[in-house]
């Protein structure tokens, strides 16, 4: 599903954020991505969603070379990748229904199909009765679940989440992880960036650790490298 071959990302102002990164995530896996601030976690997720392009190397997502996608191909790619943000990025002047419906409206689906899919997505995250509410009337946990509903409403095969539980208390964080586990059980691939090591350590999923743009640990790997040593595929 995801394959990085010697992927690097350099910014003019901050230098190299990802450095010759090699990793592979199979379809149907649920994987956590950890590491200190500035390790490159968010950058990797942006590359996967084609919000950024690699500076060097090759990044394949479901067989598509992200670095070579044309402008016409990018919208299709992004519809195959549901992205969940820590800060929700909801439209505060729109209802919960309208926020979740937005990707479908942009994709040009008819009103009846949009309504059916939005209700199904809200039902999955337990917010069907909040469809007419506005985000500012919801708790932080409910806002995060609206963001998750928006990410899954298009039925993407891949979900990437950037610190989705960072602003939640431990009980709500575990509820959100339970939602992700349910999506994974029906075949969705998930890559979740998180600092919550205490929670991750209790869950039976693969964990990748980045440090200074390199993969330094993989719970499924037989070798742990130092930050100074590239991991060879």
Key structural traits:
10 strands, Rossmann fold, single chain, 2 domains, globular, 4-stranded antiparallel sheet, 6-stranded mixed sheet, 7 helices, 233 residues
Describe how the helices and strands are arranged.
Blueprint: E1 2-11, E2 15-25, E3 30-34, H1 41-48, E4 56-61, E5 64-65, H2 74-79, E6 81-85, H3 96-107, H4 111-124, H5 140-152, E7 158-162, H6 170-185, E8 189-193, H7 197-200, E9 206-211, E10 214-218
Helix pairs in contact: 3-4, 3-5, 4-5
Detailed description of the structure:
The chain contains 7 helices and 10 strands. A 6-stranded mixed β-sheet has the order 6-7-8-3-9-10, with helices on both faces. By secondary structure, it is α/β, with parallel strands linked by helices. The protein is globular and about 45 Å long. It has 2 domains: 158 residues, Rossmann fold, CATH 3.40.50.300; 65 residues, no CATH class.
């Amino acid at each position: 599903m995801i394959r990085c071959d010697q992927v690097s990302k350099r910014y003019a102002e901050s230098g190299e954020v990802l450095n010759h990164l090699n990793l592979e995530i199979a379809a149907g896996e649920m994987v956590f991505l950890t590491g200190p601030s500035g390790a490159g976690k968010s950058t990797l997720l942006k590359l996967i969603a084609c919000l950024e392009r690699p500076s060097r190397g090759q990044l394949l997502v479901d067989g598509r070379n992200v670095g070579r996608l044309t402008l016409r191909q990018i919208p299709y790619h992004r519809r195959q990748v549901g992205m969940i943000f820590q800060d929700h990025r909801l439209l505060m002047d729109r209802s919960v229904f309208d926020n979740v419906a937005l990707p479908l409206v942009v994709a040009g689906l008819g009103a009846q199909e949009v309504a059916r899919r939005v209700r199904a997505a809200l039902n999955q995250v337990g917010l069907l009765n909040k469809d007419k509410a506005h985000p500012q009337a919801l708790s932080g946990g409910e806002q995060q679940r609206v963001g998750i509903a928006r990410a899954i409403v298009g039925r993407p095969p891949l979900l990437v989440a950037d610190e989705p539980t960072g602003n939640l208390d431990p009980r709500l964080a575990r509820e959100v992880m339970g939602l992700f586990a349910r999506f994974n059980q029906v075949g969705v691939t998930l890559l979740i960036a998180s600092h919550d090591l205490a929670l991750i350590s209790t869950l039976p999923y693969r964990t990748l650790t980045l440090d200074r743009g390199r993969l330094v640990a993989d719970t499924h790997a037989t070798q742990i490298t130092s930050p100074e040593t590239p991991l060879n595929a």
